[in-house]
Amino acid sequence: MIPPVLPTYARANVSFERGEGVRVFTPDGESYLDFGAGVAVTSCGHCHPHLVEALTEQARKIWHTSNLYQMPGQEKLAKRLIEASFADTVFFTNSGAEALECAIKMARKFHAANGHPERYRLVTFEGAFHGRTLATIAAGGQAKYLEGFGPKVEGFDQVPFGEEAALKQAIGPETAGILIEPVQGEGGIRAVPPQFLKMLRQLCDANGLLLIFDEVQCGIGRTGKLFAHEWAGVAPDIMAIAKGIGGGFPLGACLATEKAAAGMTAGTHGSTFGGNPLATAVGNAVLDVVLAPGFLEGVQQRALALKQKLAALKDQHPAIIDEVRGTGLMMGIRCKVPNTAFQAAALDQHLLVIGAGDNVVRLLPPLIVTDADIAEAVEKLDRAARALEAKPAA
Ligand code: PLP
């Protein structure tokens, strides 16, 4: 019999009724260390007092008005995102996929408005993940997500990750832009080298293309800068964010330069809930935390401690860990055993981690994680690895 909730997820047999900081608690009061943060969502940890206050204060005022009226909370959040980024304008959404949909539509509209409606194709990269709508599964290009859902949405040309020659070959008279995650998340925590991002910028400028970054997972402080692309010193024309900006409240956004957004006039795009007062109240509170002086430097310091500890863990468990990779608080452990086995062994130790492509286990703790939390998590991973080593080979 089909379960009441459509069974599209292979869920672990555990639930949580309360969260506090880096910890979540089962109904029995058992505590788990959360190094998944709801897949990079609870950027400020669970129930951060400042976020709880912002949400409840807004809940007592007004929840929803629609985008038919002025939205002061949106305007404030948009101005702050603009102030802190390359962007001149922001469209708010409820999710990452919707932020990407806006980005894709904007790129197409840009060229159409400039007299080139034939330029609608985007080049994307193998291993990408951009969401689960029909357009974003086409952009991601992964067969397992496309299969059975009818014809793939037209207009996406995928090239191997990091291959400049294939990329240049894929660009033609119909190309509108290039879409890339500066750090692939679902693909297995693969950071795009800064020089490659720089090359993309030059390529776009030389060919009149729009550069689109998907920072849904790697943005909002995850790498120790507000946006991951800042490390490379290049800026996109359009960028999708979500996850961390809502801190657990559904919120996404598409940021763009004035030039790139020029075609998106009244009536061209919309969303009932996107950027509603509750969501933007929380988004503003997240920025209060993440943009506070010294916060991102703290993330960088703690990220370094995590990286060093994971490197030592790899040396201790050569039969379990193949490679440690990633940047900031977005780390991946490529496993020699099935990543699902390592993830399950970590769960046995009351540590939440998340699987990814390329047999990787992801560590994406809340950005407020402490050095002591990191030490505890690595101890749990050590115990998980030992448990796997003690198991007779299947
Ligand atoms: N883009 C990236 C890089 C993601 O990691 C995700 C979600 O994991 C998405 C887009 C889609 O976001 P959402 O699930 O909020 O639609």
Helix content: 25-40%
DSSP helical segment count: 12
Ligands bound to this protein structure? pyridoxal-5'-phosphate
Widest sheet: strand ordering = 4-12-11-10-7-5-6
Overall pLDDT, averaged? Answer: 98
Task: Describe the protein.
- The chain has 394 residues and is of the alpha/beta class.
- 36% of the residues lie in helices and 18% in strands.
- The protein has helices spanning 37-40, 49-59, 72-83, 96-113, 134-140, 143-146, 164-170, 194-207, 277-290, 295-316, 339-348, 371-390, and strands spanning 18-20, 23-25, 31-34, 89-93, 121-125, 156-159, 175-180, 183-184, 190-191, 210-214, 238-241, 252-256, 321-327, 330-335, 351-352, 354-356, 360-363.
- It has a seven-stranded mixed beta sheet, with helices on both faces. A four-stranded mixed beta sheet has the order 1-2-3-15. It has a four-stranded antiparallel beta sheet with strand order 13-14-17-16, covered by helices on one side.
- Helix 11 (339-348) crosses helix 12 (371-390).
- It is globular, with a radius of gyration of 21 Å.
- The model has no long low-confidence stretch (mean pLDDT 98).
- Residues 39, 95-97, 100, 129-131, 181, 185-186, 214, 216-217, 242 line the site of pyridoxal-5'-phosphate.
